[in-house]
Amino acid sequence: MGINLTCPQCGQQMRFNLQHVEVRCPHCGYVRSTGLDEKAAEVRARGPRPAVQLSHVGAIHPRALSLFYTGHDHLFEGDQPAALQAFQRALEVQPDFLDAHLWIAKSTSDADEKRDHLSTILAYNPGHLEAIRLMMVLNGRLTPEQAAQTERAGEPLYLKADAPVAAEAAALLCPVCGGDLTVHDDDGRVECRFCGYTGPQPSPASKSGDLLTAALLARKTQPLRWLVGERVLHCQQCGAERTLTAAQLSTRCPFCASNHVIQQDALGSFTQPDALIPFKLTRAQAAAAIKERLRGLPERLRGLLNNNRVSRAKLEGCYLPFWVFDAVVEVSRTQIVNQPSSSRAQRLPPYERETFRDAQYDIEVCAVSSPPPHLTDQLGEYHLREAVDYAPALLAEYPAQLYSLDFDQAALKARSLVANAMRTKYTRRELSDDQVSIYVFTQVLQMTFRLVLAPVWVATLVERDGDLRPALVNGQTGKVVLGRARKPG
Predict the structure, then answer these.
(1) Taking the domains of the chain in order of start, what are their residue ranges?
(2) DSSP 342
(3) CB 439 within 8 A of CB 261
(4) Beta-strand (E) ranges in 131-274?
(5) What are phi and psi of 364, to 5 degrees?
(6) Are strands 480-482 and 436-463 parallel, antiparallel or unpaired?
(7) What are phi and psi of 116, to 5 degrees?
(8) At 349, phi and psi to the nearest 5?
(9) How many alpha carbons fall within 13 Å on the CB side of residue 457?
(10) pLDDT tens figures, 370-400
């Protein structure tokens, strides 16, 4: 069908004016509207398309980048299907273009498609902050409003509770007769001292932990954090109330001797453990390990100068909390050959840089201040493969402490331990020390963590001269750590 060029005002034939790109009637001057002016006015009213910040690290194919920006032009115009098509075409050109994956996840309404593209981003870059944030929304851990809040939230406000905080606890009583429970040394089952009730076999603990970045983002949605000094516990058996220090996770009532494990307090100031490592050493075995260590040559030499023979000892078993981290890292190693100018003829490369992907698992950071870190750091590694899922009833035999070092602070120490381990691993010297300088830099790409209760025998040794000396025994491996003697008080 042809185009109607009849003037609606005078009925004469109109002509197309190439100079002004318009259809005009030469008789009456009427100009037909083409819609271009309205379109231009709409574009001017909308303003320029906002700039898009790229998160991709590395080279981007020019064609993929052009299609990516075309997709954003379509989004700016409100054409979502065309935008998704442009982003998908960009991925056909460069499959690892993370920003194209990200904007498909942002633009699509299909939850499975969102998860697929976010998972691809995290496979390439485990620490991609925005992908983690969107995945948390998709998993229901954050609401869209909370996710937006994490982008602008600053440091939390710390407030100290000026009074003991009410706490809820579980009483460790036999479900059959109501008697006191204990834990069998051989199989770790909870059993009753009176009626013979035996609980189920504890389940092996899961090795997966919480993603550190996700936990930090979730914490940003809680701008107020409480520092609790004491908690008030109401005994479910005798009704007595008592005040506990913030370090106690479990306790026995001094009036009726019932055992209780704190589950939460009114301010939600702590989280429950994820796993527990059962005791393998009995009290007698721990005492024998300490005696054997005291009979060693270093201790005998100390005894020649000081009257440090032990006259008596107090030995108690307890569970101490440890934050356990797994880390995926990128290691950059730079090797610089230090050669005088006269030796350049050897043609040794003066500068070499290599990048490696590595990982370190089961990094243990003790989460209490007492016993002090200089002792707990020497307890040695625990065999985490023997850990079981945490349950309050597993504390029926030995009490447990609550962490005073939170996971965000412990993560800083874990990063330092990882960096030291990578520095040791990748500092190799093929030339002599004076010929080469090696610099190793470690970047943590992803870190997960969990809270594990580990068995420790805590001893106070009283020497003949009255000095007090602390000692720790790893309740799983039997390693002994001796502290320095000090005067009472």
Answers:
(1) 1-41, 62-152, 158-276, 289-482
(2) G
(3) no
(4) 157-160, 165-171, 181-183, 190-192, 210-211, 224-227, 230-234, 241-245, 250-252, 259-265
(5) -100, 130
(6) unpaired
(7) -65, -45
(8) -65, 125
(9) 28
(10) 999 999 999 988 999 999 999 999 999 999 9
Measured between alpha carbons, how far is 52 from 71 in angstroms, rounded to an integer? 11
Sign of CA dihedral 472, 315, 397, 232: negative
**89: Cα within 13 Å, side-chain hemisphere:** 15
Tokens of 162: 């000026």
Question: 29-33 contacts: CB < 8 A, separation 24 or more?
Answer: none
Structure tokens of 22?
């318009």
- Classify burial at 209, counting beta carbons within 10 Å of its beta carbon; exposed 0-12, middle 13-18, buried 19 or more: buried
- Does the predicted TM-score (pTM) go above 0.70? yes
Q: How confident is the model at residue 306 (pLDDT cuts 50, 70, 90)?
A: low
pLDDT (0 to 100) of residue 261? 93
pLDDT tops 70 at residue 335: yes
- Whether residue 85 contacts residue 73, with contact meaning beta carbons closer than 8 Å, is answered with no
Q: CA-CA distance, 420 to 331, in Å (whole number)?
A: 12
Q: How far apart are CA 392 and CA 272, in angstroms?
A: 9
Domain 62-152 in this protein, CATH class: mainly alpha
Q: Report the half-sphere exposure of 133 (CA within 13 A, side-chain side).
A: 17
State phi, psi for 186 to the nearest 5 degrees: -80, -50
- Assign 367 to helix, strand or coil: coil
DSSP string, 137-163: HHTTSS-HHHHHHHHH--SPEEEE-SS
First to last CA, the chain: 105
Q: Which strand ranges, in their side-by-side order, compose the sheet holding 15-17?
A: 15-17, 22-24, 31-32
pLDDT score, position 20: 63
Are 329 and 418 in contact by the 8 Å Cβ rule? The answer is yes
